[in-house]
Amino acid sequence: MMREQLEDLRTRVLAELEQVDSLSALEDLRVKYIGKKGELTEILKGMGKLSPEERPVIGQLANEIRQKLEQELEQKKDALEKAQLEARLQEETIDVTLPGRPVATASRHPLTQVIEEVEDIFIGLGFEVAEGPEVETDYYNFEALNLPKNHPARDMQDSFYITEEILMRTHTSPVQARTMERKEGKVPVKIICPGKVYRRDDDDATHSHQFTQIEGLMIDEGIRMSDLKGILLTFAKEMFGPDQKIRLRPSFFPFTEPSVEVDISCVMCGGEGCRTCKQTGWIEILGAGMVHPRVLEMSGYDPKRYTGFAFGMGPDRIAMLKFGIDDIRHFYTNDLRFLEQFNRL
């Protein structure tokens, strides 16, 4: 009786196997007949009723049928997977004659480009790049730069205070003070300090509450104003072209004495006079001066022996002049239409 059941099971499985056309149906068939709770298992539960002579014969037959069915199921599975793959390849055929799709590439932000160019120029002149914290103490941001508490010049650098003694730095000058302090009176000091600064100053299109700044410092024996002018003239020619001229005008900064405003010949009209330069032929780009003796002294340098100069510029302003941009806020709006214009390949 059990032999007939096993033979009938094999016949039915092989017949149904011919009709299977999907992997899911194939799996259902396997579970139905030879799974742990399938028909084959149910039939074999009756082995205990067989005589000792019949058990090995029926057991061997059951194993042969199981192996045969598993082999047939595996072959059917391979055939279905192959057919499925061929169907996918037909559906997903790539037409190699179609034109390729351009790959979008990123580029450095225009401010980053300008900062890197400024760094390259000054590194070529022997300067090093120095960095410092953006959250600064009142001492390094003001007092170490000859700006004691209640000094009226602080009003020009109204900032974001975290506590009475901690604030977002208003310039990168604290990096100069920290560097001089770390040098412990040793020379030479030749650094530029690029970075973000923060001021409550967003009244018009040429100002922002956050912007970038690059400051420079050089200290050694015998440093003169003529050295400052020579360095800045070289920078202007490298940044804006070999025909550039500069002009120094007297000014005031608490941390330099004497202090100057530095102009370059107008990049729009070449110094002839236009709307951009208000018909003067000159455009202001940075402030500079000889390091104040008090600043040198507070940082551990003997002002009778050492002198130096410092300067500060805004890469935002340099970029606006270099690229002809009329609103500083364009740099911070993340508008791809604006940024894609400066993709350097």
Q: How would you classify the helix and strand content by structural class?
A: alpha+beta
Q: Please name the fourth-level CATH homologous superfamily of the largest domain.
A: Bira Bifunctional Protein, Domain 2
Architecture of the largest domain in CATH?
A: 2-Layer Sandwich
Regions with pLDDT < 50 over 5+ consecutive residues? none
Q: What does the secondary structure layout of this molecule look like, with pairings?
A:
Layout: H1 2-19, H2 23-34, H3 39-44, H4 54-91, H5 110-124, E1 128-129, E2 135-137, H6 138-141, E3 166-168, H7 173-183, E4 189-198, E5 210-220, H8 225-240, E6 246-253, E7 256-265, E8 282-291, H9 293-298, E9 307-313, H10 315-323, H11 336-339
Parallel strand pairs: 1-4
Antiparallel strand pairs: 2-3, 4-5, 5-9, 6-7, 7-8, 8-9
